[in-house]
Every structure is written in structure tokens, then in C-alpha cells.
Amino acid sequence: FPVEAYGVDGALFRAEPDPETRFKLFGPVPVPVAGAAAPDRAFALRLRPNQDFAGALEGFCREHGIARARLRGGVGSIIGARFADGRAMEPFATELAVREGLAAPDAADLDIVLVDYQGGLGEGRLARGDNPVLMTMELVLQAL
């Protein structure tokens, strides 16, 4: 079956020691531009602990003048999970992968799959304003 990929020219994710968490964490670092055709602006992001997932993306869009953006991928951890439909996962440590998402200065729509530290599985759209990052979140955001 077909596989879609999206790359960012001029950045990569590298694991480096983090003074705040004292863990070795992935984060974006600049690298020389390879000259790939780049019809869109794209950003490699790392969200920090205790930032709300949706709020941080909305703030990034405001700060960079991005009217609308698409998440091209992302992985990370959040503190439990609150879904837009009212469901919740209580275990505090969950690892997630972004299935798809859109962000704008005043809204974010994030569809994820996750597993908690007890093996519980969840999926769906996250509620805005109630899903803080646990350790880190690495994302690729494409300005539309």
C-alpha cells in the first residue's frame, strides 16, 4: 500500500541531554539546507513539559503569522488524556502518535492514538486546553 512521507530541509531531530528533565530527549536542531524543493514553509518543533498540546500549537501559529497549518507527524507524551467527546484516560503517563491535525492561531484539531503506562489504548480527537505535555512532544508542522 502507498506510504506518504514529508521531510523538512534544514532541520533534523537529535537526542540530546535536557537540563530541565535530566533525560536525553529528541529535539529539532538546524542542519545545512540540502536544497530540496520546498513549496511550503515547514517547522520542526519540540513542545516542553506542562505546555497544553493544542495551546502551544495555537501560540506557535500566532507567533509565526501562520493562518492555518497541518501536522505532518508527531510523537510524544501527555499527562493522561482528555478527548473532545468527553472521554478521559486517567493514568498520568501516556505516549501518543499524531494521526492528523490542523492548527490555527485560535484553534487546534488533533487526532491521536495513544497507550498509557498500564497498557491501556486510546484514540480520538483531543480536547483543547486540557492535555499538557508530560516530557516532550516532537512535531512537524506545515504552513498551509
Draw up the topology in text.
Layout: E1 11-17, E2 24-30, E3 42-47, H1 53-63, E4 69-82, E5 88-104, E6 107-116, E7 121-125, E8 133-143
Antiparallel strand pairs: 1-2, 3-8, 4-5, 4-8, 5-6, 6-7
Describe the strand arrangement of the main beta sheet, using strand numbers. Answer: 3-8-4-5-6-7
CA-based shape: globular
Describe the biggest sheet?
Answer: 6 strands, antiparallel
Low-confidence stretches are: none
Give average pLDDT, whole number: 93
C-alpha termini separation? 26 Å
Instruction: Tell me the number of strands.
Output: 8
Compute the CA-based radius of gyration: 15 Å
- Fraction of residues in helices? under 10%
Count of individual helical segments: 1
Give the strand content.
over 45%
SSE order in H/E notation? EEEHEEEEE
**Structural class, from helix and strand content?**
mainly beta
Structural write-up:
The chain has 144 residues and is mainly beta. It contains one helix and eight strands; from the N terminus they run βββαβββββ. It has one helix spanning 53-63, and strands at 11-17, 24-30, 42-47, 69-82, 88-104, 107-116, 121-125, 133-143. It has a six-stranded antiparallel β-sheet. Strands 1-2 form a two-stranded antiparallel sheet. A hairpin with a 5-residue loop joins strand 4 and strand 5 (88-104). The chain is globular, with a radius of gyration of 15 Å. The two termini are 26 Å apart.
